[in-house]
Specification:
mainly beta; 7-stranded mixed sheet; 4-stranded antiparallel sheet; 11 strands
Length: about 130
């Protein structure tokens, strides 16, 4: 029933920008923390950013900080990730995910471990 559908991935030149979207359905999007995660080929899945239900609490990985912006539109049940100044090391399959905890708070740490619902991912490839 829960569905998360990512879009916006593409192949871009280093230094370029992409805007990823994740449309959610099947749950009350506006009361759940959401996050973006990525997995490069042959690498472990890692966190990029997460955001509380009301957008008040936001965390970024060190690599994303200053270049990426996570946001959400609760009226549209959509999560976004604006990615600027992309680097080849940003390449990977990008997932959005929802945390099942109620109250809108995010997990204690910025990590994929505690997230419960996942999309299938959208591919981002940054080329030099």
């Amino acid at each position: 029933q829960v569905s998360l559908l990512e879009s916006g991935g593409d192949s871009v030149d280093a230094g370029g920008s992409l805007r990823l979207s994740c449309v959610a359905s099947g749950f009350y999007f506006n009361v759940h923390c959401m996050g973006w995660f990525r997995q490069a080929a042959e690498k472990e899945r890692e966190a990029v950013a997460d955001i509380s239900n009301d957008g008040q609490r936001i965390r970024y990985s060190d690599s994303a900080k200053g270049r990426f912006t996570i946001s959400r539109d609760n009226d549209r049940s959509t999560l976004y990730l604006q990615m600027n100044n992309l680097k080849p090391e940003d390449s990977g399959l990008y997932f959005c995910a929802a945390y099942r905890g109620y109250g809108g708070y995010c997990p204690p740490t910025l990590s994929p471990t505690r997230y419960n619902y996942w999309g299938q991912g959208t591919q981002v490839t940054v080329v030099s």
